Amino acid sequence: MTDMAAENRRRAYLRALDIDVYVLRGNSEIEPPPADAPDATDSAAAAVADVESADWATLEQAVPACTQCVLYKTRTQTVFGVGRRTADWMIIGDAPGAEEDQRGEPFVGRAGKLLDEMLRALGLQRNSVFITNILKCRPPEDRDSAADEAESCRRYLERQIELISPKIVVAVGPIAAQNLLQTDAPLGRLRQQKHYLSDGQRPVVVTYHPDYLLRSPTLKRKAWEDLCFAQRVINETSQ
Ligand code: URA
Fold first, then answer.
1. Taking CB atoms and a 6 Å cutoff, what residues make up the pocket around ligand 1?
2. Which of 84, 91, 152, 192 would you call most buried, defined as having the most Cβ atoms within 10 angstroms of its Cβ?
3. For ligand 1, what atom is nearest to the CA of residue 79?
4. Which whole-number Å values give the CA distances from 68 to 10, 151, 160, in the listed order?
5. pTM
6. Is residue 46 helix, strand or coil?
7. 54, 22: one domain
């Protein structure tokens, strides 16, 4: 890494730590959710579409039409995911919250802003990664997801991962990590290790949820170490 790149990274991470640094920001344009995304009243045919072989257009129809679990009854809209569809990095959280449910986009609240800063510290823009959740619908009162809800949603996420084919999947928070890795191990034991999805090929790295980092800011340093670890996994894989 050049000195300039190292300095830029340091400054960006200082920003993520809430320490003001005056730097010129790059273009952080965010890919908006598709304007023509159909709503849940779309045909049942879309909901039962062959998700396993779906292309993006089919998937974008199937998700908003989904009624596979109870969450469709209380959602404002589904939250499909945003970002580059050929991204090297795929970031996966647990479920949309109130703001995400309103806007139809993942990680748009305070936690999302922190996630953006941490990505920027790595030299990544929000629109150069792909961000989504285990669940595409908000659980009422932001409760934890139920096993059957995660199971119903799994095929959408799996297809997104296949279509994107990222070099790394970063699970943020224990719920995302445990769902993705099908384990009940605590987050502390999952961090700083290279895991694989069930296909045995796609590397997964685990870190803290930005919501948790907002409440425990001293852990931001460890989260940064996790992101650097993820970058090393990509570098090793690309050699
Ligand atoms: N928390 C998540 O895990 N995902 C979101 O989209 C927002 C908050």
1. 93-97, 100, 106-107, 111, 133, 211
2. 91
3. 6
4. 45, 10, 18
5. 0.82
6. helix
7. no
Quick one: 165 and 201 in the same domain?
yes
Tell me, in angstroms, the distance from the centre of ligand 1 to residue 137's CA. 10
Which one, of 210, 205, 209, 207, lies nearest residue 231 by Cα?
205
Enclosing domain of residue 68: 40-238
| Span from the CA of 16 to the centroid of ligand 1 (angstroms) | 18
Are both 20 and 124 inside the same structural domain? no
* Nearest-atom index, ligand 1, CA of 94: 3
CA 239 – ligand 1 centroid, Å:
33
How confident is the model over 29-69, as pLDDT tens digits? 334 444 444 444 444 444 555 999 999 999 999 999 999 99
- Closest CA relative to residue 117, chosen from 211, 221, 13, 199: 13
Which pLDDT does position 4 carry in this prediction?
52
How remote is the CA of residue 198 from the centroid of ligand 1, in Å?
Answer: 23
CA of 106 to the centre of ligand 1 (A): 6
109 and 5 together in one domain: no
Beta bridge partners of 92: 132, 171
17 and 96 in a single domain? The answer is no
Mean predicted lDDT score pLDDT of the chain: 86
111-138 pLDDT, tens digit per residue, is 999 999 999 999 999 999 999 999 999 9
